[in-house]
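call fold(seq) -> tokens
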Amino acid sequence: QVQLVESGGGLVQSGGSLRLSCAASGSSIFSLYTMAWYRQAPGQQRELVAKISSRGNTNYADSVKGRFTISRDNAKNTVYLEMGSLKPEDKAGYYCNAMYLLYNYWGQGTQVTVSS
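ret:
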């Protein structure tokens, strides 16, 4: 069983930056997991923000391309999301996801609020 703990959310002004972290525990094969960040705004469906494969290949939602960067540190069992040029529409709960074969784990989320 993998536990994912997100941190780094908070309140930031429009145009500002935040760095989210997701620390994984309970697995010795973190490096094999595809890691991703999702977000969910009130009344909206959860959507994929960015993901990074075990090989380091990355994908981003069109809405965050050029502003957000996902990265991972396998030695620390941690995945990061660097968010820049934040917009009010980026306000949401951000959730970390780990996926490998049939295994799929979620963190509890961290809230990001962007003031205009």
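The longest strand covers residues 92-100.
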